[in-house]
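Recall the central idea of this unit: under ordinary conditions, the amino acid sequence of a chain determines the structure it adopts. In this exercise we apply that idea directly, starting from the sequence alone.
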Amino acid sequence: MYNATRTMAEAIASGLEKQGVRYKIFNAAVTDPNDVITEVFKAKGVLIGSCTVNNTVLRPTAGLLEVIKSLRFRGKLGAGFGSYGWSGESPKVISDSLEKAGLKVPLEPVKVKYRPSGEELAECTAFGESFAKTIKE
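Accordingly, the structure predicted from this sequence is:
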């Protein structure tokens, strides 16, 4: 809604890029779910973000997580991130869902209240770098 999670995704992507890891960013609300799942299938790692609404993730993200779970991807890394205004559950919901789907989740999710500050964006970049290093191991 306020592009906070999108801003976080871009900062995380810059961390991936610093480590030489290729990435693609999708908006699950407007991208065909089949296109996203095709990219998940090809990827070594998946980072999923959502703002928190009613103590959980947005519907398109929930649907994506269900499809990932049903396809039983193995050998992939995953992690969650997101923004929130009050309660902040979405990043943990995402990471837990990825783990239950069989992905390895090596990092604690990153979350930001409201819009990310410069310091929080630097944390997102570092999160991306850490995830990239894990992929390269």
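The CA atoms of residues 15 and 129 lie 4 Å apart.
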